[in-house]
Structures are given as structure tokens and as C-alpha cells.
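TICKET #2291
ISSUE: user wants both folds in one file
ATTACHMENT 1:
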Amino acid sequence: MKKTKIIFFIYQLGAGGAARTMLNILNNIDRERFTPMLVTLNYEGNYEQYLNPDITFVKLKTKRLRSAIIPLAKVIRKEQPDIVFSTIPNYNTVAILARLLSFTNAKNIVREAAFLGGDFKRNVKLFLYGRLYRFAAKVIALSNGVKDNIVQRYKINQKKIEVIYNPVDIQNIQERIQAGTIKQEHRAIFQEEAKVVITAGRLVHDKDHKTLLKAFAKLKEKMTTNKLKLVILGEGKLQEELEQLAQKLSINDEVYFMGFQENPYIYFNKADLFVLSSINEGFGHVLAEALAVGTPIVSTNCKPGATEVLQNGRYGKLTPVGNAEKLATAMYDILSLEQKRIQEIQTQGQQRAQEFDAKTIAKQYEKMFLRVMGHQPHEGKVGDDSV
């Protein structure tokens, strides 16, 4: 059978969950059956160094997304791929328009990674995305909750949607834990006799670090017998505001803003607890990574992602969104457990993470790609969802 050629299009191979998903699919897809190719805008992405060298990588000569339509169309025209795969609404729009302008027989497959919508203006925009998605052969939702949201907000026929969870490269995570080292300037934080709470994510409103800081201040009041530290990995426009809040709460000496770390897993591995305080998450990629590392988890029940990844609290404590008091109590409960129970939680979490392993998820994508091309019969289930 002729190999299926796929162009993967994303803004840049940067530090976000969408980029990690692209990277994991690209690196793990079967080269005997597929020829993958990556196309981005003209940026230097943090994850480019981890892209397998056998993958053709093209950077368009523009940094503006709206200016990428014609250059991407030319690449599609030249390469004659069977499929153009993209993720996130704005990028999906560009990919569909470029494919249409290429006048080729390529098929668009678009991936939706977030739980979007809410106000009237945003819902109208999503409805318009849905009109454009009619030109796509398939829409991939990264959770069942995202699928339901796509049907509601985008007005897309649910038969066109498949659920495939985010891939987590467990082997790579373990290798990077074993080979990596904590940066010299950060080592003292993890070497002291202190309980370390860690989080990772962009410093933006939806991640709700304010509630986390307030919860950590309350945790300090509850846990007087242990020294506590809060490590925040990630960058964003709210950093200065969050630093000011930490100072106002008198916890600034125990809170460490460490920015983006190329190897966050060694930090997760050294921490006693991972906390996610998000308002909403389409999947919660970082939760799956924390499970793979074996770090106990407390998360807000940010729908739909956290409740699906943690199976309604089976693999991590869930608390109401925006409730600092209950978040602090859940953190206290985990940090107060005996070591035997912690080890049980770690083992259970790592077993759950196997369901998101990149090799497993890549196989689900492969089957979906082949079905779109008419090379494989429909099997009824992708991810956990009947389609």
C-alpha cells in the first residue's frame, strides 16, 4: 500500500500542549505506512530539538498567521499530501483555506483542544468556525467533553467527530527524568526539609494561579509542622500581578516563579504534590504527565479535562473551581498521608498514564488517518468514545 503523506501544520513547535501533541504524534507515527511532514511559521520553537531528524520540517517565511494562507497553499500544492492535519481554531482556519486554495485532493483533519465558548460573541465565532469545518473530512476532539462542546457550539454533526486523547510520551519522560538534573540555582529548594507543591502552565487567567496562591497561604496556616514551598513553572502576562499577590499574602519567600523549563519532569519528580487550579481544561495534558511521573495530584474539577483524565477523582483529588479553602484542604490531606499510601497513589497514577501513552494514541491516529483515506474499515471506538 502506498504511504499516506501527511502535512502537520501548527503556528510553532513551542511550549504548549498542542505542540507537545503534534511532537508526540510526529515522532511515533509508523514510518512504514506514513510520511509525516511538519510546517510552522517562522519561529524558533522550544520543542524543535526533540523532533525526530527523519521528519521533513518546513518553516514558512512569515510570522503572521493570516499571511500564512498563500505560502501554506504553495507547500500543499508542491508536496501533494493526502492529509493536512492542524490543531486549534485559528490554525485550522488557515489550514482549510490553504488546502482549498491549493486545488489539490488533500483532505483536512482538524483537532479541537479546548472547551471554548460562553458569551454570545464567542459563540457566534465558533459557529462560523463550524461552517468552515464542513470542508474538513474529520474533527478530532481531545475529550468527550470537548466533543459535546463542539456539537453544541460549532453545530457540527457528531458523526464527523472522533475522540482521541492527548498522547503522553512516557518513555521520553522517564528518560528525561533519569538523564536530567535540576538547575543549580533551583537545587536548594528541593534539598531542604520541606514539602514541595508544584504546578505548571501559562500564567494566564484560565489557569487561575490566584486561587492557587490563596490556597497555598491557607495551607501554610493548616500545616504548621512542615516547611512548605510552591514552585510555579510557566510564563505569562500575569506574572507580575501574581508576584504582587504572593507578597500581599506574605508567602513570597516560599513561592518560586521558575518560568518555562524544557525538562519539567525532573521538577515534578522531586515535588511532593502537583496542583492544577484551572478554570477549564479541554484535556489537562499536564495532569497526564504528572500521572506518568508518579506525582500525587490535586486539581480543580475543571471540565471537561480534569474530570476525564482523573476519572472523577479516582486518580487525584478534585475540588471546586475557584475555591481556595477546599483546594487547601485537599492539598493538606495528600501531604499528610503516610508514605505507603503515597506509593499506592503513585503506582495507580502511572498505570492510568499508560492509557495515554504516545505509542497507543499514535496508533489511534493512524487508524483514523487510514479510515479517512478509505484504507481501513470503521472500528467503532477511538479513545473512549463511540463514533
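ATTACHMENT 2:
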Amino acid sequence: MALDFTAIDFETANASSASACAVGLARVRDGRIVATAGWLIRPPVGHDRFFELNIGIHGIRPEDVASAKSWTEQLDDLVAFAGADVLVAHNAGFDMAVLRRACEATGDACPPYRYACSLQVARRVYDLPSYRLPAVAAEAGHGAFAHHDATADAAACAQIMIDAARRVGAGDVRALAELAGVKVGRIEPAEAAAA
């Protein structure tokens, strides 16, 4: 198998995991980033209030997403980009919760993606004073980037996994997870997760 996966990053409008307002994606094939994409999202109704704290982090305002596709309208685009890849995110628990909870809020079927966490991998592969995305990305040889721009964050996450795989001699995400001692999880629907 080859080192193929899609890195993903969400930005949210507020403290609700369902409040996705931007997504960034980076496709990796044979250990190289071959495509990136990103777009704004109109958060689901009831989760669409923008908190000043979140705006201060990512700079996205309500007027920026007013004409963006809704969660439901953009979900097919997200799935088309990621295909059947394992998703990778830096602090994957957050990003997978956004995917699941936004689908719950809109009644959309949540794709049952397998996923891995570059933060967990980084903690096992690197010895750093901080495991925040910019610090780990720098250690992985990724240049300066616009942190909290979803597409830039996804590309940085992808580079971390590529570098970590090289360092431990892993040929694919499953081998990297195994060598790093972390799990490849699967998104479960809320009713299955609660059972």
C-alpha cells in the first residue's frame, strides 16, 4: 500500500461542534500532497451564531458565509474530494466531531470515515516542547503558513503525517499508526456511539 490519505481541517463559528464555517482538505498520494481545496460553509441553522472568540481565531465573519453553500449542499463536495481515503486531522477528535455533529444537526447521513490523528502521531514520533500545529509542522519541514486558514492547516497536517511516516519507515497510514502506537478510528453515528 501507499501513503495515501486526505488531511482535513474545520473552522467553527462558535463552541458548537456542529457550527462548521470552513473546511480545508489536502489529498496525499504516494507520500506527496497532490491537491488542496477549501471553502466557506454556512453553518447549520441553530448553530450559525458567530462568537467573537472564534472570529478572532480564524477571521471568518457571518457576512463571509452568507452566500456560501450550506452544510448539506457542500457535503457531497467534501466526500467527492476525500473519496474513500482515511481522513487525518491535527486533533482529529475535534474535526471528526464537527463532521458528525453537523450531519446530525442537518439530518444528513454522516460518512463512516476511518481517521487518524496527526497530534497523537506527533506526540509519539517527535520530542517537542509544544505539539500545536505550527510547532509540529515546522519540525516536519513545513514552511510558515497561515494558521487557522483551514486549507493551510490541512496541508500542514498532511506534511506532518508524511514526515512522521518517513521517520518511522511506514508505507501507509495503518503502518504509521501501528508503529506510533495510535489507533485508526472510525466515525460512528451518534446512536451507535451512545450505545
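RESOLUTION: both attachments delivered.
EXTRA DETAIL ON ATTACHMENT 2: The CA atoms of residues 120 and 162 lie 14 Å apart.
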